Amino acid sequence: NKKAFVELLFWKSPAAACEMTKGYSSLQEGEATTRSRVPPWTPQQEQELRELYWKYKEVEGGDVIAAILAHLPPPGRTRRQVVKQLVRM
């Protein structure tokens, strides 16, 4: 790539650097991306998350997300995944 030197002038994430070295379509094919490692939410999990949110959202002085995480069945989700899914829903 004759114009790769221009790309080197700007800050790159590890994923972008990997994409530059392996080819620009490598991340689109799903090679070791972070997003592919996160299991998608099933409709049953979304329904359970919705029910847990409505159950614990009115609790005074408590952390709603911590209460939801304590009652989610395996496989466990991270706090960030739960918050992101709640915002998306």
Automatic annotation (TrEMBL):
Pfam families linked: HTH_TIMELESS (PF26019)
Biological process annotations from GO: DNA repair; DNA replication checkpoint signaling; replication fork arrest
Ranges that cross the membrane: none
Recorded GO MF terms: DNA binding
Cellular component terms (Gene Ontology): replication fork protection complex
Protein name, entry field: TIM protein
Organism: Platysteira castanea
Species lineage: Eukaryota, Metazoa, Chordata, Craniata, Vertebrata
Gene: Timeless_1
